Amino acid sequence: MGDAEKHVIAAAYHIVKALEATNNLSNDMRRILADLDVHLSTMTTIGENEAEKTREIENRLRSAQENITGLHSNHSRIWNSCPAIVSKYLQSVDEVRRLIETLESFPSKRTWKQDFLDRAQCILQITMARLQDELIHILAQSKQCFKQEYILHPTCEETSVYEESIVSNEGDSLEDVSQRESSSMETEEYVMDLVHPDVVPQITSIANIMFASHYDHEFCQTFVRFWRDELAEYLTILNVEQFSVEDVLKMEWRCLNSRIRKWRRAVKNVLGIYLTSEKRLFDQVLGEHGSISSTCLVEASKASLLCLLNFGHAVAIGPHRPEWLYCLLDMYEVLASLIPDVESLFPEEGGSFIRIEFHELLRRLGDAAKVIFMEFGNHIASRTSRKPYPNGCIHPLTNYVVNYILCFVEYGDTLNLLLAEKDGENLDKGPNENVGQMTISCPVAVHLQSVTSILEAKLDVMSNLYRDSSLKHIFMMNNIHYMVDKIKNSEVGSYFGDEWIRNHIGKFQHHAMSYERSTWSSILGLLRDNEKTGKATLKERCRDFSIAFEDMYKIQTAWYVKNLELREELRISTSKTVIPAYRNFVSKITNSIGEKYIKYTEHDLETYILDLFEGSQKSLKPSRMKEVTILSSISLFPTVVFNKIM
């Protein structure tokens, strides 16, 4: 209230008092003067109180400003000072905030109000900028390093590639790689302290004063930007790079497979560790402010999450080659296991688009895996060969398909669920809970058995490329035995069942017997019907048998039976067929033509049969034949030969 206003009120007050002293006033006039007297007295009191209030505000504002300015000047980092300094600073800032609230409650007609309000808001703005700076400093100084135990990663090297393992005849199979992958991805719940626990109350105090001062947007902007950058740095630690869809589609398989491994590790770490830890920190700092914590978490994480999701989408729409299947299934299973984390991290409406994107990627990965799985049989059928595979051994296609199949036991439950979704079925139990009819007839089992049938048909076509019918049977025996042996001795055998295994054991045994008939029938025919033949005929048959055996030896030492047990069984079976017949023939003709026309003994044949199927061609050279004949003579007639030599 100005001085002029005070003088007017005082003059009016004296006039009223003088009028009240007049005796000839009516009652109504006296009541009016009495009311006016009361109003003038009140106005005088208000004026006096307002002056006092103005002085009080001035003193409070000046004191708070001096405290804040002094603390700014004397301390480069207030939160690095003692708790008393921090408390004094927060109290001064809060004093300015409360003064602003008081001033804003006064009627706008008071001319002095705006001056005080402008001063207070200027001071508050300066303190809010300082608080943002202090916040960044606290976060930067107290953030925790990403310790090795908080980075989950596969145990197998990223240089291992599915494709190499699938087609390899030696060493690791795809089954081995997949088992290492599966076991390495078993994880525990990890929550790490992103900042030192002691500074959480400090960060919270800054948040509270900034929110109370209506600078909540500025706090969240600073807080979110810091943690957005930290998450980007975490992805760098995990060797994750940002690629466009075109980049992914152009990648060579080795490079892409390595990137997929890094992606799986990254998505598991980001959702399973980092964002879980970040959510805890955000809730500690912003939990008192409703859904702000969830909103900030979305803003801090969406850029990095979209980077991971975009890579996944690019892989899902890539070419549907067989070697991609296990990578897609690994990606699908990792993502499926993390969907509960996604739902927990982003439960609010603001995070719905992240939830939707994760579910959409999961669907695309599942669809792509189903397409590859169902098309695998066509992929096998499309393979062509113009030349027979050398030595009748296991064809790369057989090795490829069998080792591919061996890994399905790792993914049986997942594939059954995916196929059930396609067929509209509902599988309440996983396929591996029983090894009975349910497992054998589940969608995966049916398809795997179909794949092996296609492989067998393809092998049969390939076997016709061999001119030698015996080698055709060796080829079929080798490949079917390999298929049965691998499947029977692995967990994937439950998808085929005992009947399938028995049938296929019978198949390779049938080819083994067919080999013996086609190889040895004509040779053994030379040893039969010898009772009514002359010496010349017997000599010729001995020579013909030796030539036939030598030719067979030269050819079949180059043939290869990889499995040692099968190779030994085939040799034993051959010996049991050949040796008795040869022994009987020799015993019957010895008296007729003598020993010198019998080129090989029983022991010789047994020894030579042991050389078969080694995959390294050998020959029975004439010099060796002569030496064998001499040694045989020595064994039969030691005394005579010894005397001649002497």
TrEMBL record:
SUPFAM superfamilies: Cullin repeat-like (SSF74788). Pfam families: Exo70_C (PF03081), Exo70_N (PF20669). GO terms for biological process: exocytosis; protein transport. Residues 262-611 form the Exocyst complex subunit Exo70 C-terminal domain. The keyword Nucleotidyltransferase does not apply. Keywords: Exocytosis, Protein transport, Transport. Belongs to the EXO70 family. Component of the exocyst complex. PANTHER family: EXOCYST COMPLEX COMPONENT EXO70E2 (PTHR12542:SF92), EXOCYST COMPLEX PROTEIN EXO70 (PTHR12542). This is Exocyst subunit Exo70 family protein. It comes from Forsythia ovata. The lineage of its organism: Eukaryota, Viridiplantae, Streptophyta, Embryophyta, Tracheophyta.
